[in-house]
Design goal:
By secondary structure, the protein is of the alpha/beta class. The chain folds into 2 domains: about 160 residues, 3-Layer(aba) Sandwich (Rossmann fold), CATH 3.40.50.720; about 120 residues, N-(1-d-carboxylethyl)-l-norvaline Dehydrogenase, domain 2, CATH 1.10.1040. Helix 9 crosses helix 12, helix 9 crosses helix 13 and helix 12 packs antiparallel against helix 13. The model has no long low-confidence stretch (mean pLDDT about 95).
Length: about 325
């Protein structure tokens, strides 16, 4: 089985590397030729173009940073839609707009190929080990055919139903994570200005009903001061924007989402597009002249759990 992989960024590169480590024959494509060269040294083939990638693959995986780039890769002349062949499988692992996804899936299916969406959740450190979670939407038959690949990319794999359902679920989970990150900034500010021991505060939150995956992970790099969560401000604004757009389309007037989006936009303006998303809490550190720091926390998160072959949940 030959796999073509487009997009070797923070998440895509880690997922593609898992395929190599599981002895899949893969060919890669990215506009960043340095990343392509790195994968060539690891044993991957490098494609000269999207068309070249498609013509030499059984399964095509895209993992791209924005709806605009997804459209370029799929819709351009000699892109995936132009060149995909009957019975090939396209798996979209980007977090993107559900209407765009459905449009691409329809065009893929008109070529008698299989379209699946498979966004991931759980952080870049888990993408690196293959322990990340994957939501999959599309035909059940396509899901079953792709499962040998999916179970090497992630651990907990959820079949969500029709195409589009997985991406909506992913946008919801990203929104919830961002809300808790913003709330943590306020919690750490109160703790710091109250002169609490921040190490004990971390443990207390982790042992309480206020705990979350975001606290267990992102609070560690916040307390270290690196903020290095391998996810950037432009991407988190995109994710919360997708959630807000979905609400608008459904005619739902949300209360918290617009506030969170304004906070993220302010953080992006203050710290820059490529600043780590967890730096949103630094707005309050700066405003109240404090620092959320404690000894013994890592500069970057590592997944220390043993790799397990993926399974459907």
């Amino acid at each position: 089985m030959k796999i073509g992989f487009v997009g070797l960024g923070n998440v895509g590169g880690k997922l593609a590397n898992n395929l190599l480590e599981n002895n899949f024959q893969i060919s890669v494509f990215d506009k960043n030729h340095i990343l392509m060269d790195e994968f060539k040294l690891k044993g991957a083939e490098t494609a000269k173009s999207i068309k070249d990638l498609v013509m030499n693959s059984d399964i095509l995986i895209t993992c791209l940073p924005s709806p605009k780039i997804c459209a370029e890769v799929l819709e351009s002349k000699d892109g995936i839609i132009d060149t995909i062949q009957k019975d090939q499988i396209w798996i979209e692992m980007s977090t993107t707009e559900d209407e765009q996804l459905k449009k691409h899936a329809s065009l893929i299916q008109q070529k008698n190929a299989i379209a699946l969406e498979a966004p991931v959740s759980g952080g870049c450190h888990r993408a690196a080990t293959g322990n990340i979670s994957i939501f999959v939407g599309g035909s059940r038959e396509g899901f079953d055919k792709a499962m040998p690949v999916l179970k090497c990319l992630g651990r907990k794999i959820l079949y969500t139903g029709d195409f589009g359902s997985a991406s909506i679920l992913k946008v919801i989970t990203n929104y919830l994570a961002t809300v808790h990150l913003v709330a943590l900034g306020e919690a750490w500010t109160i703790a710091s200005k109250s002169n609490l021991d921040l190490n004990k505060t971390f443990k207390g939150i982790a042992a309480s009903s206020g705990n979350s995956f975001v606290h267990e992970t992102e609070s560690q790099v916040i307390l270290n001061g690196s903020y290095n969560i391998n996810f950037t401000m432009d991407l988190v604004e995109k994710d919360v924007g997708l959630f807000q757009d979905l609400a608008t389309k459904l005619g739902i007037e949300l209360e918290i989402s617009p506030l969170v989006l304004d906070i993220i936009k302010d953080a992006r303006k203050t710290f820059g597009d490529r600043a780590w998303s967890s730096m949103v809490v630094k707005r309050l550190e700066n405003k109240y002249n404090t620092a959320f720091r404690a000894e013994g926390y890592p500069e970057e998160l590592l997944d220390l759990e043993e790799k397990q072959l993926g399974y459907e949940i």
